[in-house]
What does this fold into?
Amino acid sequence: MKIDRQALGRFAALRLRAPGGATSLQQGDRRSPFRGRGLEFADYREYDPGDDLRLVDWNVYFRLGTALVRQFNEERSLSIRLCIDTSASMGFGEPRKADHAAQLAATIAMIALSHRDPVVLTCYGGDNKGLRARAVNLDGLPELLHLLERVEPGGHGDAHAQLVAQLGQGRSDRLVLLSDLLCEEAERDSLLRLCAASCPRPIVLHVLGSDELAPDLDGVERVVDSETGEELLVREGRDATKAYQAALEAWLASVETRCRALGIQYVRVDVGNTVKSVVEGALHRGQIVEHATGGAQ
Amino acid sequence: MTAAQPWALAALALAIPIVVAYLHRRRRITKRVPSVLILRAIAGQSKPTRRAWSKPRHLVSLAMVLLALVGLSAALADLRDEDDTPRDFVLVLDTSASMGAGSPSRLSEAVDELADALTGLRPGDRVALVTTGAQTLVRVGLTEDRERVLALAREATASGTGVGSAGALRVADAICRGANRGAIVLFSDGVGVDIPTTQCPVEHVAVGRAGPNAGITALSVREADALGLAEIYTVVTSELGRAQELQLTLKVDDDIVDVLSIDVPARGDVEKLQRVPLPPGERVTAQIDHVDDDQLAADDSATVVRHGGARVSVLLVAETRLSFAAEALRLHPRVDLRVVGPHDALGNDEFDLVVLETDYLAGPLPPAPKLVAFAVPPSRLGVAARAQVETPEVIRWSFDHPLFRFVDLQGLELPRALALVPATDQTSLVDSDQGSLAVTSTWEGRELVYVGFLPHESDLVLRVGFVNFVANLVEWAAPSAPASSAGAENVLSKTETHIDPPSGLERTVKSTFADGPLARSPLWTLLLVAALGALVLEWLLPAFVAAVVQLRGLWARRRRRGEPA
It folds into this structure.
């Protein structure tokens, strides 16, 4: 897949939002639900044997005669997991959906790593299995990019099984699934449920190209599925065009409805739009990214 | 069948890509798609009835396009029957002054039309060229040498009037009558053109458009007196469309003598009579300036030759050098006077006028075309006198004769005079109650005016009429203008100044000569229209519908993107 590395630098002023707090084991600068060492005082609790005596508030002890231990809010990093669909259907479109998804993933990874949020990148759905890379800061970004550039869309793997194998290796704060979701309804539903179960606030970036939104079927008598090889005779004409548009609208509506029902944030991405417009438009409006200094974009 | 442009048949090769395009267009393909998930909504084959109809529909369309292509190729090649004999065209090119109007000029436009038409002629067609303007000339007879015809047409310049067009068309008709299926083609703006009745049809190729113009349509100069005062009569015709103030400059030769300001109406004439003292010179020129949007420059100036402006050499034979006639002649600004006595010898000098107040006795009279004699012996000059009469009373004189302009002989006091008897070839100029007092005659090849009394013996010398009489003598004797100056006169007629082309010329037909062979073949025109119609219906209309569908899809996608995610 192709990555425009030069374009990544323009998003350095953004960072990912963490509405539910950060739960990564890595120390960072985001608030977490954990109490422990930190700079921000949170509460007192009674001393238990074994506690660090340096945390005992001696002023309170002399005044009340009770040993209380000071507690602080711990600051952790936001763990991000990016899952990119590399099945054959992602190789269509102009630009290719896979390239567009890779550029989006690289952009999100760069935004996360520039704030020391660890990122795990996973490729699934294609012939390649177990493609995974991890980075905890910007030093690890080249490895992620190298993985994205190395992988080409193709084949039709068991997406659910591959994701189960990948997601079982740890929990993340945010999971971003980049896919065209062009699979059978049962397979798609299991995939979405897996995402919902793996992360408290998952995101689906539904990448679509002109082959789905406005396919050119003039003079086309037969179509062949790029993943399954299924052949289909199709009609042409205005009635067929209307019927396709109706089916497309219904399919998109069903995907979005299912995502919302599972608590997944759904964002539709057209490859006709630039990554910059997607990040500064849909992702910003969806409160997935925000300006690092809190100002307006 | 013959073809004037056989290379055009190569256009038939376009049939190959057209057929390929039709066949390719109808072949349906198999396409690889990301997923058939959504495409299942349009699964199935198109209805057989529609496919059955679409095939012959496209075959008919293909046949129409191929037929139109054949027609177009035939039109370009100018296919025609072999018995279609060549034609002869007599081209009449109007080169009158109005053809110089506009920029580029109407004449250039006409020559361009003529050039285009010549390229469209078929092999064997012949053309002749007649120009009409200042002169009517047959430039070249019927010939197939079109380059020569075109070169001669390009040499033509706009001048003169269009009144000679009728004669030119008659000449063209005479040429055309002996031609093969001949026709006369008139390239003209129609201004001042008169179409006579001709045997051959006259096709009119109209050039030029209406436009504003102002010009001098009349100019004449008359000497008002013998001292150089002249009356200049000018008419300025306006077709400007709005009233303007113009500047009229009067020149003698190249020297400006007066500048006038005149107000011309939107349409109409302005007459101007100006009395100005004119210096010696041969040509008087009037020129108008400060004309906005003037289309025709040729009528902005006019030139006339000033008649009577030349010097007159006069020989006066008199008893004394101080005679009244001698003084009057000496005061005349254009007279070179020589006064001699009756016995003075003369050399071989020639004179324009000899005035005899007394008989010249030293020899034969010197050469002079005009001779005036006052009471010299009449028999010597071939005039018969009845007797000398006392106190004759003038009862009639030829006041319309040039010699008696502004000369009043009423109540002339005349103590004595010779009563003349005019011969049959002589004309009496002055009659008295006792006989004729002056006659005009010819003597030895000279024009003679014989007066039967001496002026200084009457009160004529005391009257202003005597000075006028002497001035009239000088004008009468003045040598005529040289022949070379005849062509120097240049005053355009009013018809040329009205440069707006007429809506149509009678007895003419619309020209098909300048339209080329394509227009002369209405069948090919229909085939061309059929070709365009087939192309529009078959190709452009579905493309337009597809474009509308694409735009609707684009609009729908944009509307979807506008919704919050």
Summary: Chain B has a mean pLDDT of 83.
